[in-house]
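Have a think about this chain, tokens included, and walk me through the fold.
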Amino acid sequence: MSQDSNKYKKYFYEKKLVWEEINQKERQAVLDFGEDYKKFIDLSKTERNSVKEIVKRAQEQGFVPIDSVNSIEKGMKVYTINKDKAVALFVIGEDELESGLNIVGSHIDAPRIDLKQCPLYEDSGLSLLKTHYYGGIKKYQWVTMPLALYGVIIKENGEKIEVSIGDNEDDPVFFITDILPHLAKDQYKKNLSEAIAGEDLNVIIGSLPYDDKEAKDKFKLNVLRLLNDKYGITEEDFLTAELEIVPAGKCRDVGIDRGLIAGYGHDDRVCAYTSLQAVLETKNNKKTAVGLFVDKEEIGSVGNTGMNSEFFNNAVSELLYLEKGKFSGLELRRTLANSSVLSSDVAAAFDPTYPSVLEKLNSPYIGNGVTLVKFTGSGGKSGANDANAEYIGKLRKLFNENNIIWQTGELGKVDQGGGGTIAYILAKFNMDVVDLGVPVLSMHAPYEIVSKADVYMTYKAYKAFYDYYI
């Protein structure tokens, strides 16, 4: 840049590359943080497993269940679980609850393939499972790759059986087939979204017959025998089960320089991890800090474990009662209205291979830090929260004063499509809310990509929000 250019530099805005802004000590911190994140995400391939890992880490830092205490005081750390699929962590602050909470809310479900209630059948020498995909996936991405099976089965006597097959080194994996290219003439004529039908996402679970030539459905029978030997279940137990198909294998570093991570479920467990680490380290906070981790975002935040449920409001109500020995709905409304929220969700990073769907000036870039998304939605911001400028201005000051590399972004070109987060749900309580999270490449694919630098800056942003935002 010429001297004349330097003279006018103060008038311009330029994104910053994290790797060029940090010193060697912080660079090592970025890399170390990435290693722990990889451990977390490998243990958190379902929403139930995510809750387990979150609670385990919280308990190690002194968090106790809300229902185990009779009152609350500054510095106390409590948590509450909702049906093993959502969890909220609270670090009680100096101010009374009614002055508002500092909330970072993420979702811990991810696009996947679920088993149907009656999944098991046999055909042409194979045992297979019928499925129903969950969330927005490109179906063709899920064929011809190793898959794992996770979930729970509730037996007739009420016993809960936990299932995990495919990720241990000695486990078998599962598989969805595709047509060989030599015979794919008709498939090639279909639109990409129709090339693999939802009803064709059938998972191979076995291929050996039961050792009795007279047995009926001997391939299916052999699978049932093996499942009975391992878990003590019968076919009827599938009716009362929640079983999920996810990619098998651990996440991996990407690139010879190891700056990126490829893994399943970055959307949105990368934001769950960063907000978890931030709230676990929070202390001496003025306002009560909340780490909120919910289910069902990928299908509209519905159900009794999604953000639209009363789980969070009920938890805050419990805290208000513990604080004052009484409760009123007005106090709850004031507490929520005075709260500030970072809707902790990922952003669509600019992909140089597919530039036509993204607007370069307003897209987040890999390695340029945590991404603030003022609005999501689609078709004229339909369904968006669209945060106000005053709130964004406060966050801008907070991040700049705490040396956090951040950028802004939006979800693609105006007429291209869109999406949503939990932001609009929390905003209905009159909270200040904006989306803030990690930029991701190949979002909703079985394996997504994030930058270790962006993961670390996202953690720093959440930590500053808990520690300093008023």
Observations:
- The CA atoms of residues 186 and 288 lie 59 Å apart.
- The mean pLDDT is 95.
- The longest strand covers residues 112-123.
- The two ends are 39 Å apart (CA to CA).
